[in-house]
Design a protein that fits this description.
Largest sheet: 3 strands, mixed
Order of helices and strands: EEHEHEEH
Strand content: 25-35%
Radius of gyration: 15 Å
Mean pLDDT: 90
Number of strands: 5
Helix content: 25-40%
Low-confidence stretches: none
Oligomer: single chain
């Protein structure tokens, strides 16, 4: 799981569940750290019109896809989302 991090109207990165849990286990005092210190660049921005075929390349690079409408995140697409979508096509 991950969540986009914004600075005003700008997407600055993602915080992953793994990164957050690791920070908390390493030092519980990390709860008071600024969010920006946990941000990772593990995403690729796509538009709502991006072909589904582009997602496999994004995932192969270890990223998730963030669907942007204008400059604002509208959705996060992960590997499991793509698997669910493809499974639904064959059902």
């Amino acid at each position: 799981s991950q969540i986009p991090v914004m600075s005003g109207d700008n997407l600055v990165g993602m915080i992953t569940e793994l990164r957050l849990l690791k920070a908390m286990l390493d030092d519980p005092a990390n709860i008071d750290r600024p969010v920006k210190e946990l941000v990772e660049q593990t995403h690729a921005a796509v538009s709502p019109d991006t072909p589904v075929s582009r997602l496999s390349q994004i995932f192969a690079e270890g990223n998730v896809a963030i669907v942007l409408e204008g400059a604002r995140p509208a959705a996060v697409i992960t590997k499991i989302d793509l698997i669910d979508y493809l499974a639904g096509l064959s059902a």
